[in-house]
């Protein structure tokens, strides 16, 4: 157990004892009160409130707070100590706040104040409040035991502020298989994003390890607190790159006391809305194609299928086509239930195009058909002779069936295919007005896959767009949408989501330097920013990297600067560790050395280790090698749904978003990692997964992206 000074520690011990006593007593009382299941509405409301309190106190009981700020508001005579915790707790006797929720306006001072004698201020619902900070203190409490007290600021003290000491202590810890909350050490630049106003589309460029994922999750918790009357957890959604990543981040929101937020991938979400009408083609083929080693790799352009189908141009093309399709959707023929009686097509058109024009296509069709049936019913009623009526009814039923055969209700995939085929066959649209053009590269990559009723990821947003035209938007409107690893999203996807999001409330985060899926993602943030009104969007940059040691960040920046592109480089926090090791190995010793290194790491201090290979095949070989040497390891491929921690073997392109205490990059030679932008980004991703230790091995010539002689 460590402490900076004796007195503060004793002072905090006494305070903790008092607070814990109050929370324990409150919780015991609540737990002994039975749940109410009766019909009385007042009692029901009280029961809900008690449940919420039970939940809040259960979060607070073990670690009631992590920070203290002594603040003297202007006009007051003395500073008030404010204790900041994950959940707000009141003293039931005085109703005074015992612990302040980290999301409360006043708690923002704890994060934004970084020292100095000047006036500090925060924004409260009543306006700006200012005053002086006298003390800022970090506390570590585990299971109601005070473990550490660190003062990062004391007014008038000649001690130098140690603002980063507590952060560095936190960053130096090992990580297990879950991302954790950072409420006690949120940095000022992160806090600004977390607390940004709701109805804004925030686009955040953050370097590797700058806390993007973590910040996004904390922002959701903040929005739920700050806008509790307007937003609901069930109406918030997080899009992440894959199921394994979702598993990895799944602990943070519950740690913050937040539940029920949908966490999904765009593909899973889309396939569900499409009611599994299509299947996704196996992603490994695409990954193998784009991450092939050497000259086999395809050339990237705006006509690359993923880029083309993700563009706003394609979205407009589809919309124009559907509009034209809509104009010819209703049959031109009159409906004649029997000789001598006709329902003019003009009337049918009027119902469809005028009366029901606010409904989506299929709903309009449904209503119009119901209207025809009603008309038919009335016409039949006019026939006095029951026998004749019966005959005419039978005949009319059959004729209606035939009439509707000429008016089919298409599925999203059927309509999408129809559009695509028309465009592929020369560009005439449904109405013949809108010339369409689909590049031959896109046609060649599409047709063989669709034949199997499979689609590529870039077809999902177009399918959803068509579905919304046919059946409307369902699944409700979102209160807020988070898109993580957004550099891999397309403008089409974001535009589609924005139509389903109230107030354009988005948090879009990513890193262009990690844009390894550039065949489907964006190349610059303007591609997204251009989708929103400038007054409704904001752009932030996070430059400091918290994950890795200084040595690792400097090394990774070196790789990136040899990419041939100008990409945002990371600024490390001042956390020093081992030198990055780059070693040449004789091919015949490669396997033995890899096994020895992994063994040394697992027997040492690393809880999580990644062995990163260039391709899935290489990884399969590495995995076999480790298992044969008695080292338990998980081989991660594109289908992996769970992140288990321990030793993982994986290709760099699947490592995105994850982190490991130690990373070993095998085969970092000039064949696997050429002096190209894609290889530089891949290697950068691989290097920046390491928290504490990074080593690279190569045989033959080293990759030209590596710096061999670091000081
Ligand atoms: N303020 C902070 N205090 C403590 N730890 C932090 C802070 N900010 C980030 N971290 C830690 O840094 C690591 C990286 O965070 P996170 O994964 O959210 O970053 P990222 O920007 O999404 O990274 P990447 O783009 O490389 O996947 C995590 O271990 C996180 O807990």
Automatic annotation (TrEMBL):
Protein name, UniProt field: DNA helicase UvrD
Annotated PROSITE patterns: UVRD_HELICASE_ATP_BIND
Source lineage: Bacteria, Bacillati, Bacillota, Bacilli, Bacillales
InterPro entries cross-referenced by the UniProt entry: DNA_helicase_UvrD/REP (IPR000212), P-loop_NTPase (IPR027417), UvrD-like_ATP-bd (IPR014016), UvrD-like_helicase_C (IPR027785)
Pfam family of the protein (one): UvrD_C_2
Keyword terms of this UniProt record: ATP-binding, Helicase, Hydrolase, Nucleotide-binding
GO molecular function, one term: ATP binding
Keyword tRNA-binding in record: no
GO biological process: recombinational repair
Entry annotated with the keyword Ion transport: no
GO cellular component, one term: cytosol
